[in-house]
Write a structure and sequence with these properties.
This is PIG-L family deacetylase. With 444 residues, the protein is α/β, with parallel strands linked by helices. 34% of the residues lie in helices and 22% in strands. The protein folds into 2 domains: 236 residues, 3-Layer(aba) Sandwich (Rossmann fold); 167 residues, Rossmann fold (3-Layer(aba) Sandwich), CATH 3.40.50. The protein is elongated and about 95 Å long.
Length: 444
């Protein structure tokens, strides 16, 4: 998208109804990391969010990629170095208004050339992703190459990180886009959410915007020193809400489609020893050498499906992500007793009974683990085995914990195996609770 900030763009009022019709969201209770291209991006696009997070006690860290030294390339009164110093001072003042405890890190990368620095940007973000986090960046489709570079770097840094939620926000799209006409729909049709701002957050944002006179006031009366953000553009940032392009919730199918679109192996199932060892422990915990009919919901790309198939007469594997199903189907294509289907559980639980049900790393994504547990118990044969394995660490996209899922699954069943590590929880249940030695007649 090419646009000219000096040309009158879409009136802020044209977006008002569209903004009000967006789904309102709460701010995740997570540390906040903000990556922006230039000083003032953080205040314009996410100042209310920063103020809200800080007021709630969240740790706030802002990474500012460039010093904004290229904002007035034709200025006759300020050099790039002078502009950089001015904008750093403005950013520090703005953040004091928004979140006095926030930490700002200036990366001092070249303004206007951030696309050449994406690896460095992604590395800086990774250095600050020390745990579960809400990562917020400028939007990839905003029409400014530096904004797009920050969005791509943020996405690369959190790829495969289930404990990081990545939101993006527009700056210039408000100006060049129109919610009712192309190319505005490229923005308006994104999955956007609205964060409503309380009076304190709005006031803090208003004060912070005022800390950037170099951007919304002329540097001088000379040509080349005109304001970058005239009042009609600033009007887009004076609403009582902020808008973010947010990923689909983890309880929706599109969430997993998005994961696989960016990485065919989003959890490192094929490369990590951790994952291989966990699969081997799960297989070793099975109390029988062979099963008649098994069901594996959430099969992903089939890394567990394949060894399960060696111990089952029939195996039904399912997932909701089309890319995962393609990979799994290719992996077991030579096994006629394995069927791979697209199903969402528990809503599309298959008919029939199973003497083995394997619920691995999928239970915390369902809306209600109790419904999942009911479906599993009803489908379990009298001598059936239910095994579950789930990540124990906090993850931003997990609506439920491993303990909550296993408590629901194990209700009314007898636990025969429990393996607890710092990283994951593994449980095996059956209706009777027979030991392997008793089943084989070693003990009576």
């Amino acid at each position: 998208m090419r646009f000219d900030h000096r040309v009158t763009g879409t009136d802020a009022g044209a977006w008002s109804l569209w903004r009000r019709n967006l789904a309102a969201t709460d701010l995740p209770a997570l540390p906040l990391l903000v990556l922006v291209a230039h000083p003032d991006d953080e205040t314009l696009g996410a100042g209310g969010l920063i103020a809200t997070a800080a007021a709630a006690g969240a740790v706030v860290h802002v990474l500012i990629a460039s010093d904004g030294e290229a904002s007035h390339p034709q200025s006759a009164t300020r050099t790039g170095a002078q502009l950089a110093a001015i904008r750093r001072t403005e950013a520090e003042a703005a953040l004091r208004r928004l979140a006095p405890s926030a930490v700002a890190t200036f990366l001092a990368l070249p303004d206007g050339r951030l696309a050449e620095q994406e690896s460095a940007l992604a590395g800086a973000v990774r250095d600050h992703l020390l745990g579960p986090c809400l990562l917020v960046s400028t939007w990839a489709g905003d029409g400014h190459p530096d904004h797009a570079a920050c969005a791509r770097a943020a996405a690369a840094a959190c790829a495969g990180r289930s404990d990081v939620v990545h939101w993006q926000f527009p700056i210039w799209a408000w100006h060049w886009a129109d919610p009712a006409a192309a190319p505005g729909r490229a923005f308006a049709e994104q999955r956007c959410v609205r964060l409503d701002l309380d009076p304190a957050a709005r006031a803090a944002k208003t004060r912070a915007i005022a800390c950037y006179p170099s951007q919304h006031e002329p540097l001088s009366d000379l040509p080349g020193d005109e304001a970058i953000l005239p009042q009609d553009v600033l009007a887009h940032f004076r609403h009582d809400n902020e808008v973010f392009i947010a990923p689909a919730p983890a309880t929706t199918d599109s969430y997993f489609d998005q994961l696989y679109a960016s990485n065919v192996d989003p959890w490192g199932l094929t490369t990590r020893f951790y994952e291989r060892r966990k699969r081997e422990l799960l297989l070793a915990a099975l109390p029988r050498e062979r099963f008649a009919a098994a069901f594996e919901p959430g099969c992903a790309t089939g890394l567990l499906t394949l060894p399960l198939a060696e111990r089952c007469d029939t195996l039904l594997a399912c997932d909701v992500a089309d890319r995962a199903l393609q990979e799994c189907t290719a992996r077991v294509r030579h096994l006629p007793h394995v069927q791979v289907e697209r199903r969402r559980i528990p809503e599309q639980w298959p008919s029939g009974r199973f003497d083995l049900i394997v619920i691995s790393e999928v239970g915390y994504y369902v809306t209600d683990p109790r419904e999942l547990a009911t479906a599993a118990r009803q489908a379990l044969t009298g001598d059936g085995v239910l095994i579950a394995c789930h990540w124990r660490h906090e993850a931003a996209d997990h609506p439920h914990t491993a303990a909550q899922v296993h408590d629901a699954l194990g209700a009314t069943l007898v636990r025969t195996v429990q393996h607890v590590e710092e990283d994951f929880l593994l449980d095996v249940w059956s209706r009777r609770g027979d030991s392997v030695a008793r089943a084989e007649g070693i003990v009576s």
